[in-house]
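Hey L., structure's done. Input below.
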Amino acid sequence: MKSYLFLMACLFSLSSLWAQSDISPAVSAALKMGDAAAVASHFMPQVELTLPAKDGLMDKAQAQQMLAAFFAENPPQAFTIKHQGTSKLDDQFRIGELITSKGGFRVTFFMKKNNTLLQIKQLKIEPAS
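Output:
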């Protein structure tokens, strides 16, 4: 019985650690608010950014500027995560819908563990089909 309780305590601790490292709620809130700085605070030093008119691998500061320009042109009204999972490369991903004053966009972000932190390595914002 003691070993069962110990095992349950360990599993609870591990799930708590995972929940603490999940940045999805913070990123979702930042996307909903159009807060490029808050989104960028979760970027890796180099991030692959895809926007409707621009894309490429860039440093965190440049990606933040481009994201801020996107939000200025497309003020967000809502963001909802529709799907989540783990890729074959063991990266976490989230797929959501961003509603802006100019229409809907599909948002996909991939997160990779960098030491003990999950960070965004790729962010795609594409027009919804």
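Confidence is low (pLDDT under 50) at residues 7-20. The helical segments are 2-21, 24-33, 36-40, 60-73.

-- N.
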